[in-house]
Amino acid sequence: MSRKPLIAGNWKMNNTRKDTIDFLDNFLPKVRNIASDIVICPPFTNLFTAAEKLANTNVKLGAQNMHWEDNGAFTGEISPLMLKEVPCEYVIIGHSERRQYFAETDETVNKKIKSALKHGLLPIVCVGETLSQREEGITMAWVTSQVEKALKDIPSSEVGKIVFAYEPIWAIGTGKTASSKDAEEVIKAIREKIGELYSKNVAENIRILYGGSVKPDNIKELMNEADIDGALVGGASLDPESFYRICAFNL
Ligand SMILES: O=C[C@H](O)COP(=O)(O)O
């Protein structure tokens, strides 16, 4: 088993064009020798600027969302063709903020994943429970059901291109991190569910990240867990030094 670590920065609705240039001028030289996959997901308006800066570097570009259709009357939306043109390599799908504020459902998440794969984009698919679901004791059932619905009708030949990100909603932007043991327990359950749906081999090779208040001082402990393959980082990815320190967790 050899899963390459992946650290992705989700800037959410932060950073102007100038901020993007300043960040990358500072960040790119620092991470030049890092072997893990590093992905930056800026807002749509900064994708072309970021793509120019990232050309011929070891840092990859991702978008934060996309529509599942190639084009059409969908005011305010961005299609996979547009992301490929930038070019983006990754796209975050089903982030809890999209599910919570923009009415994304397991069904639209599934459509988006299929569309991303069809266009050669690598989906980073987010799943996670609310605090009340955790307190009710239904975390595993909820998260594994999100995974199963996300993967509906996706063939085993394609599933390995997907990256999952387990993000407990109560840990996002709150400073509360799931303990590395709690994160490992859920991520292991996600891997087992993928094993049931496909095969042990597929499950052993798929990358599953943790997200939720990841910082330079907790990344090492998270990455020491057997099933955690990386992190989806929000707030701490906005500062080049702290994001660098997260990417350099194993140096
Ligand atoms: O996509 C990233 C996650 O929502 C985590 O955000 P955070 O690191 O600010 O808690």
Strand content: 15-25%
- Provide the CATH architecture: Alpha-Beta Barrel
Bound molecules: glyceraldehyde-3-phosphate
| Assigned CATH superfamily | Aldolase class I
What name does CATH use for the topology? TIM Barrel
Topology:
Blueprint: E1 6-10, H1 17-31, E2 37-41, H2 47-54, E3 59-63, H3 80-85, E4 90-93, H4 96-101, H5 106-118, E5 122-127, H6 131-136, H7 139-150, H8 156-159, E6 163-166, H9 180-197, H10 200-205, E7 207-211, H11 219-223, E8 230-233, H12 240-247
Parallel strand pairs: 1-2, 1-8, 2-3, 3-4, 4-5, 5-6, 6-7, 7-8
Keywords:
single chain, 251 residues, alpha/beta, TIM Barrel, eight-stranded parallel barrel, 12 helices, binds glyceraldehyde-3-phosphate, TrioseP_Isoase_bac/euk
What does it look like?
Belongs to the triosephosphate isomerase family. Involved in the gluconeogenesis. Catalyzes stereospecifically the conversion of dihydroxyacetone phosphate (DHAP) to D-glyceraldehyde-3-phosphate (G3P). Pathway: Carbohydrate biosynthesis; gluconeogenesis; Carbohydrate degradation; glycolysis; D-glyceraldehyde 3-phosphate from glycerone phosphate: step 1/1. This protein has a single domain, classed as TIM Barrel (Alpha-Beta Barrel), CATH 3.20.20. Helix content is 43%, strand content 15%. The chain has helices spanning 17-31, 47-54, 80-85, 96-101, 106-118, 131-136, 139-150, 156-159, 180-197, 200-205, 219-223, 240-247, and strands at residues 6-10, 37-41, 59-63, 90-93, 122-127, 163-166, 207-211, 230-233. It has an 8-stranded parallel beta barrel, surrounded by 5 helices. Helix 11 (219-223) links the parallel strand 7 (207-211) and strand 8 (230-233). The radius of gyration is 17 Å and the shape is globular. Glyceraldehyde-3-phosphate is lined by residues 10, 95, 167, 172-173, 211-214, 232-236. The site of glyceraldehyde-3-phosphate has 14 residues, from strand 8.
